[in-house]
Sequence to fold (221 residues):
Amino acid sequence: MSRKDEVLDVACGSGIVACAFAEDAGHVTGIDITPAMLEMSEALASQRGLVNLSWHQGDIESLPFPDNSFSLVISRYAFHHFPRPDVVMAEMVRVCRPKGRILIADAALPADKVDAYNCFEKLLDPSHHRALSIDELQDLPANAGLLNVQLAFYKMEMDLEQQISVMFPNPGDDEKIRRLFREDFGVDRLGVGAHLRGDRIHFAYPITVLIAEKGIAKHSN
Ligand SMILES: C[S@@+](CC[C@H](N)C(=O)[O-])C[C@H]1O[C@@H](n2cnc3c(N)ncnc32)[C@H](O)[C@@H]1O
Fold:
């Protein structure tokens, strides 16, 4: 990352990642569909004194940028909201320059756990669409023709009550979630390692980070 980098943050939310990249990049553009999120992004950038950012409201299935505009195209904790992740990936690749990089970080589960995981996440966060299995996430760059795909994994530890308080599940679903988690102690059907810490339920989102490179287009004739 250098001042030569032009970064696009896809589904930037409240701008945390975009602002972190702006500390080192030449310019960062954030796009999100939710105006309230973009207001938070602007507030965060001005609070940090960052002036090398711009914000766009729009749907990431059709990015309002020309081909080959950015050297790095990123998206964190957002692919689980997208009904057509392959379409979003194709758009990220289109706006990325040849030899530029695409970075995606999101929850991804082993194939035998992904359905149960998605059931609890939809209860917790009604805007959740579907987390991908690790294999499905890995297929995205392969199907988009990206090169040098690298994967890394980490776990994001959470307190269940704290998550419930910020995610606004529908009335009554909070109790269903607590029951699902208690039933999952020592079983891990949900894939999040639910357990008790003192008298509080804790769990961890399994995050996959995927980074890949856009090749140089080959021209016939
Ligand atoms: C969980 S937040 C992630 C925010 C941010 N990337 C981060 O890491 O902090 C998911 C974001 O995706 C946005 N989003 C969901 N569907 C979208 C779409 N079709 N087009 C643009 N943004 C979308 C939501 O508005 C929300 O801000």
The longest strand covers residues 96-109. Residues 11-14, 16-17, 32-34, 37, 59-61, 76-78, 81 surround S-adenosylmethionine (CB under 6 Å). The domain at 59-213 is CATH 3.40.50.150 (Rossmann fold). Helices lie at 16-22, 35-47, 85-95, 114-124, 134-143, 160-167, 173-184.
